[in-house]
Design goal:
Layout lengths: L1 H21 L2 H4 L3 H5 L7 H15 L10 H18 L1
Length: 87
């Protein structure tokens, strides 16, 4: 009986972990143009301009009250690096 209870408990923990990981936004999809909020046909000049503007807004030093500012800035930088290498 003890093994069944422990097995059910571990299965429940696994299920909760699965739901948490599935709900993370960054794992859903990674579209650099959507993150940078530009058209996919944008040239390198427009990409750089948009990145500079958004990086000033989302930089962790500018958003000390936002606990997710570092992650948002890293995601923005990754999107810029990917879109810059595509063009």
């Amino acid at each position: 009986m003890f093994r069944i209870v422990v097995g059910l408990f571990l299965w429940y923990l696994w299920f909760l972990n699965y739901k948490m990981v599935a709900s993370i936004e960054g794992l859903q999809s990674f579209d650099p143009y959507q993150i940078l909020e530009i058209d996919s046909a944008a040239d390198i000049k427009a990409i750089r301009k948009q990145y500079r503007q958004m990086s000033l807004l989302k930089h962790p030093d500018k958003n000390p009250d936002n606990p997710l500012a570092v992650q948002e800035f890293i995601r923005l930088t990754k999107a810029y690096n990917v879109s810059d290498s595509i063009v």
